[in-house]
Design a protein that fits this description.
The structure is a homodimer. Chain A is α/β, with parallel strands linked by helices and about 350 residues long. Chain A has helices at about 10-25, 45, 65, 80-85, 90-110, 150-170, 195-205, 225-240, 240-245, 260-270, 270-275, 285-290, 300-305, 315-325, 330-335, 335-339, and strands at about 1-5, 25, 30, 35-40, 50-55, 75, 120-125, 175-180, 180-185, 210-215, 220-225, 250, 255-260, 280. Chain A is globular and about 60 Å long. At the A-B interface, helix 6 of A face helix 6 of B.
C-alpha cells in the first residue's frame, strides 16, 4: 500500500512514519511506499528507507500534483501551531484551513477520476474546546462536548473535522478525525505553540538548562506521550467505520495532570536538583491562552478502540529519557541527569 | 449608516430590506444607504428606493471590490440551498463556504486598512444539527446541542458559524450567527431546498393547485414565519454583545409542528376542500434528508432577546394569506380559497 503523511518531517509525523515502517504493514496490508511531505526534510533514517519518498515544501504548493496520484491511506498531520496562528491570521488560514481543503479536493479529484477513496486520518486537537459564556467547559471535555474554540488554531481544526466528515459522507474519503492531546515530552527546542512549555519544563531541566513555567502550578492539562499519540493515530486508522462510531471526531486518551504533579514526577524520576531548574514566571499572554483550554479530557470512544492513557506522568518522563538515551545526542539532552 | 445585505434579492433578503427601509433605522442609526447583492435583481419596490443600490452577480465575484468599501452593518444571507448543495458539491463549497470566507476577508482587508469593524449577522441554519451514532439528536435541539450536520449545506453553515466567531474574536467584525428555522410559508415556486415542501403543502392548495407531501404526516419540524425570521435577524443585529451571550451561534425561535398539524391548521383556516388538495406520496430522497433533521428546536438565548415563536401554525397561514391578499397577484396565489 502507498501512504501519504503530511507533516511527515515533523516530530510526530516522523515518529509515526518510523513506527509504521518498523511494523511494515497497516490494516493488514504491507506498506510498499510512503510519501512524506513537510516544509523541512525528514530525519536521515527515514530518508534512508527505500520505501520513503520525501517532498519538501508547503503542503499547499504540493496539492495540485496530488490530484493525479492515488494513495491508499493518508495521515494528515501538517499544521501551523497555535501560537503561530494567533500571531499571523493569514498563516493560520493558509496552513491549517486552505491546505486541508486543497488536500481533500485533490483526493476528491482523484476519486472523481475513478480512483478509490483513501482512508484519511486527520489530526485534530483538544484546542477545539474552549469556554464561551453560552458554553461553560465541563471538568473533562468528552467526545461529544460542544466545541467553542478560543483560538484560530482550534477554529481551523474544528472546521477541518467537519470537512473530513462531509467528504466522508459523500464517499470521497474514508475519513476519521482524532483530537490529539498535548504531546509531552517533545524533544528539541521550544516551538511556537502556546503549550510548548508543557514539554519545556521537563526537557530543559533534564538537559541541565533552566526552564520557565509561564502558568501557575495548579494548572491542569490533558497530555499524552508521543508513543501513545502515534499508537492512537494508527488505531484510529485501523478501526472499522462501525468501531470508529459515526463521523464526528473522537478524543485520543489523555493523562489529566497538574503542572505541580508533572514537576513532582520530574523530582521522583530525575531528582530534586533537576526539578529545581524550573522557575515560575507568569507570562500573561500564554497564561491567557492556556486559561481557555480544558483542564482535562475523557476519551470514551478511543477506549473502546483499546486505547489507554498513561496512568502517571513519571511513565511519560521515563519514556522520554529512554528515547533520549537511545539517540546520538544523549550527552546533551540528558546532561542535567549527571550534573 | 450603510448596510450590505447579501442575498438581498431573495425572498428573505428582500423582506429584510423592506422591513429595514420601512423602519428607517437600525440600532438607533438612520439607514442612508443599502447595498443588495444577489444573483438576481431585487423586486421593483426596493429598486425604486433612493437608498438602495442593487448589485447583480455571484457574491464571490463581488467580494474583491468590497475590500475598499466600508459598511456599518452586514446581513449575510446569500446561500445555495440544501438540495442544490447535495446535488452539486462544488456549488455548495463555492456558494456557501468560499463566498463567506471571501466576504469576511474583504471586510478584514478593510479593517486592516483602518476601517471600523462592521456588525455582521450571519444566517446559519437548523440544518447544522443531525444525528450521528456518537451524537443522538435530542427531542429539541438547543443553542448548545452538539451539531453533527448530515448535509453539505449544514456542514458549510456550521463552518461559517465558526469563521464568524473567530473573525469576531480577532476584532475584524462584530459577528453574530443566528440559526434560521425552516421559513414557512415561502411564496412563489418550489426551490431546490429539501424543505421546500413545508411551504408547498400550504401554498399550492391555497392557489388551487394539488400538492404532494413527500414525507409522513407524523414528521415534526421546527418552522418559523418570514416575519418572525426577519424580526429575529434584526433583534440579533441590535443585541449588545453581552446580550448575545458569547460568540457561538444561537437558534432563532421555532414553532415545532407536525405535518399533520400543519394540514389540520390549513383545513381550519382555509377549509377542508383546500386541505384535500394535499396528497401523500413518499419521496425516498427527500424523506431520507428530512429524517436526519431535528423534529424540533428550542431557543433559550433568542427568548432572552425578547424573540418568541408563533404559538400555532394557523397564525402562520393567516400571515401568509394576508401577505398574498396585499400583493398584486392575489387572484392567483389565493385562487384556491374561492374555488
Amino acid at each position: 500500500m502507498k501512504l501519504l503523511i503530511t507533516g511527515g518531517g515533523g516530530f510526530l509525523g516522523a515518529r509515526l512514519a518510523r513506527t509504521l515502517l518498523a511494523r511494515g504493514s497497516l490494516a493488514g496490508r504491507p506498506i510498499t511506499r510512503m510519501v512524506l511531505t513537510d516544509i523541512a526534510p525528514p530525519p536521515a533514517d527515514l530518508l534512508a528507507d527505500h520505501r520513503v519518498e520525501a517532498r519538501t515544501g508547503a503542503l499547499l504548493s504540493q496539492t495540485d500534483a496530488l490530484r493525479d496520484e492515488p494513495f491508499d491511506g493518508v495521515f494528515h498531520l501538517a499544521s501551523a501551531v497555535s501560537g503561530e496562528c494567533e500571531a499571523d491570521f493569514d498563516l493560520g488560514l493558509r496552513s491549517n484551513l486552505d491546505s486541508t481543503r486543497a488536500l481533500l479536493d485533490a483526493i476528491r479529484a482523484n476519486v472523481n477520476a475513478g480512483g478509490k477513496a483513501p482512508r484519511v486520518v486527520f489530526s485534530s486537537s483538544v484546542a477545539v474546546f474552549g469556554p464561551d459564556p453560552a458554553v461553560p467547559l465541563p471538568a473533562l471535555v468528552a467526545d461529544d462536548t460542544l466545541p467553542a474554540p478560543q483560538t484560530s488554531y482550534g477554529t481551523h481544526k474544528l472546521i477541518c473535522e467537519h470537512l473530513v466528515a462531509d467528504y466522508t459522507r459523500k464517499g470521497y474519503i474514508d475519513g476519521r478525525a482524532a483530537r490529539l492531546m498535548t504531546v509531552t515530552v517533545r524533544p528539541g527546542t521550544p516551538n511556537g505553540a502556546a503549550s510548548s512549555f508543557f514539554s519545556g519544563i521537563i526537557r530543559e531541566p533534564l538537559a541541565g538548562i533552566e526552564a520557565i513555567c509561564p502558568v501557575d502550578a495548579s494548572v491542569s492539562h490533558p497530555v499524552s506521550s508521543p508513543t501513545r499519540t502515534v499508537d492512537g493515530l494508527i488505531a484510529v486508522y485501523e478501526a472499522s467505520r462501525e468501531a470508529f462510531c459515526g463521523r464526528t471526531a473522537l478524543n485520543l486518551p489523555a493523562l489529566n495532570v497538574r503542572v505541580a504533579d508533572m514537576l513532582d514526577a520530574l523530582a521522583e524520576v530525575a531528582g530534586s536538583a533537576v526539578r529545581a531548574r524550573v522557575r515560575f514566571e507568569r507570562d500573561e499572554r500564554i497564561a491567557g491562552i492556556v486559561a481557555n483550554w480544558p483542564g482535562g479530557a475523557s476519551a470514551t470512544r478511543a477506549s473502546k478502540l483499546g486505547l489507554k492513557p498513561h496512568t502517571n506522568f513519571a511513565e511519560i518522563i521515563r519514556q522520554y529519557i529512554d528515547d533520549c538515551a537511545a539517540a546520538p545526542n544523549a550527552a546533551q539532552t540528558l546532561k542535567g541527569l549527571s550534573q
